[in-house]
Amino acid sequence: MMPPTTTPTHSSFSPLSPLLCLLISLSPFTPFPLPNPSSPSKFATKHTMPNPYSFLTFSLLLLLSCHLLNAQEHSQFGHAVDRKLLGLKRKEKLSHFKFYWHDILTGRNPTSVSVVPPSLKLNTTTAFGLVNMIDNPLTLGPELSSKLVGKAQGFYASASQTEIDLLMAMNFAFSDGKYNGSTITILGRNCVFNKVREMPVIGGSGLFRFARGYAEARTHWVDFKSGDAIVEYNVYVMHY
C-alpha cells in the first residue's frame, strides 16, 4: 500500500540561509515559486510574490549602511575642503590702514579701565601684572573729534618686571564703509618707549578672513601723569 501523498505547503519551505539573504538583498522583491493548487506535487513558476525575507534583509542592510556612513562622518574632525566653497576665488591682496588709537584713562567716560591691579608682592616700577580692558576709539586723524573708523577692543597687560612692555591682545573692529563689521586681530609685544613697535596680525573676520601681516605703532602723544595716550597705527594686511 502506497503511503499517503503529502501536499507541500508554504510553511514547509526551508529558512533562507544568511548568504542567500545577502544575495537577494540586491532586490527586495525577488520572486520565488508558489504552490499550484491544481497540481499539488508541482510548483508554479509563473506566480510570484514579494519575498518578505529579502525585504527585511534589504531594510536592515540599508539601516546599517546609513549608520556606518554617519559614524564615519562624525569620526573625522578635520578634512580638506575646496577653497572656492569659502569664497577664496581671488588672489590675496595687500592692504594698508592708517588710524589713531586713543587710550583714555581719565574723564567721565574712560575707554581704558584697569581690571587687574599690579602685583603688590613685587616692588617694581613697571606695574607688572596690571591688566587694562579697552574699548578705544580709532579715528582717521589724531584728534578725538576726527572721523571714527572703528574701535580697538580687547586688553593690554604689563608683562615685564624690568621695563614697560605690554602684551597687546585686541581686535580692530571697523565701522566705516565696506569694512563695517570686519575685524583685524592683533597679538604681540609692545615696548612702549621704543619709537616704532611691531606687532603681528594673527587673523581677522569678514573681509579679513585668513588675514596675516603686521602693525606698526608710534606714539603720537602721551600724558605721563594721567596715562592718556594717542598712538598712530599703520597696519599691513594680506587678505582675500
From TrEMBL:
An annotated GO cellular component: apoplast
Localization (cell): Secreted, Extracellular space, Apoplast
Keyword field contains Magnesium: no
Pfam families from the UniProt entry: Dirigent (PF03018)
Gene3D superfamilies listed in its UniProt record: Allene oxide cyclase-like
InterPro entries recorded: Allene_oxi_cyc_Dirigent, Dirigent
GO biological process: phenylpropanoid biosynthetic process
Keywords assigned by UniProt, alphabetized: Apoplast, Secreted
Similarity annotation: Belongs to the plant dirigent protein family.
PANTHER family: NUCLEOPORIN-RELATED
Subunit field text: Homodimer.
Function, as annotated: Dirigent proteins impart stereoselectivity on the phenoxy radical-coupling reaction, yielding optically active lignans from two molecules of coniferyl alcohol in the biosynthesis of lignans, flavonolignans, and alkaloids and thus plays a central role in plant secondary metabolism.
Protein name: Dirigent protein
Lineage of source species: Eukaryota, Viridiplantae, Streptophyta, Embryophyta, Tracheophyta
